[in-house]
Amino acid sequence: MIQTAFQRYINNFRGFTREVWILTLITFINRAGTMVLPFLSKYLKEDLQFSYAQVGWIMVAFGFGSMLGSWLGGKLSDKIGFYKIMVFSLFTSGIMFFIIQYITTFWGLCIGMFVIMTVADMFRPAMFVSLGTYAKPENRTRALTLVRLAVNLGFTAGPALGGLIIMNLGYSGLFWVDGSSCIVAILIFALLVKERKKPADLNTINGGTEIPASVFKDKIFWIFLFVCFATAMLFFQLFTTLPLYHNEKFGLTEFQSGLLLSLNGLLIFFLEMPIVSFTQRKDISKLKIILWGCVLMSISFYLLLINIWAGILVISIIIITFGEMFIFPFSNSFALSRAPKGHKGRYMALFTMSFSLAHIASSKTGLELIGHFGYQTNWFFMGTLGLLSVLGCIWLQKLVQIEQK
């Protein structure tokens, strides 16, 4: 029985090209290597003695650099190809991580973080476009899911490794390891993967429906971006307001909060790929799955209004994790399949920018609401934002049905 279940699980990972596995490996190395990020605010506050306000502004510069990088990476992927952008982004940001440890002034770090994130996040849309090229058409959603697993595993391993490096080598060691991981990852990619042109079948969606030539005229895609932004706003609460709530309301330790986040990572690792494979076998519409994910996300935050029992935190995190598994792999795939010929990079740029913007807005909005009105107001606001994304999905389904007639 266990052997059969294990075999079924392994079967979900079959059928990928060699290039997709290499992309997954370098994504894991890169994400595990970005171990500076979880410790960045701590480094700025404790080592460099910046005020909370100054740390906040450096993180804002970080966020806006990420947005600009996403846009440039997508646009340049269309102009000169994703391969060159990926190599430039990882190699240059690796060198920059070596340098930025020597910048210790407030304005220097604002500019430095903006520039480094602009270069580093050019990688993300280019990587999405590369998956559209290297993965077989029937495997694209699963290939995106595979890379998401690598990202999750990298984020799980990174902070633990980062903590060990800080204890033994200090923060400077963190910057050296981070920069080295970027360079090692892209050298593996450049040596093992050859540049390839985009396949023709990525030019249309849903078997041939023509899409507006400009992304700015694609109404369906902009409604879809709102849904992505809203759900990402909810998702990022996991790393900003929820750990604070765990401690302030229920007295959970950092270790107990970490266990709850680990539950999220474990569920994704074991269940996301089987869920994606099942929905593809049953040929369930991507938008329908995303809709159900939005419903679950919304419910998970309304459940937090029940603040008299700590067990609700476990139930809420399980529901938000299923929401995440229903939304993110399929939204990646929908965005990739939506783009017409020559515009894939621009579409994936706006898609990744919606997450960068949500990253900036989520913590700021959540913390402001909590500061002025308390946690209950924030949970109600986030649950209602989830409901708006549900309505956005229903509207999207109707517009796509009209477009296909």
TrEMBL record:
Gene3D superfamilies to which the protein is assigned, alphabetical: MFS general substrate transporter like domains
InterPro entries, per the entry: MFS, MFS_dom, MFS_trans_sf, MFS_Transporters
SUPFAM superfamilies to which the protein is assigned, alphabetical: MFS general substrate transporter
Bilayer disposition of the protein: Multi-pass membrane protein
TM stretches of this protein: 20-40, 52-74, 81-100, 106-123, 144-167, 173-193, 220-239, 259-277, 379-396
Major location category of this protein: membrane
A Pfam short name: MFS_1
Keyword terms of this UniProt record: Cell membrane, Membrane, Transmembrane, Transmembrane helix, Transport
Segments forming domain Major facilitator superfamily (MFS) profile: 19-401
Localization, UniProt: Cell membrane
Annotated protein name in UniProt: MFS transporter
Organism name: Flavobacterium xylosi
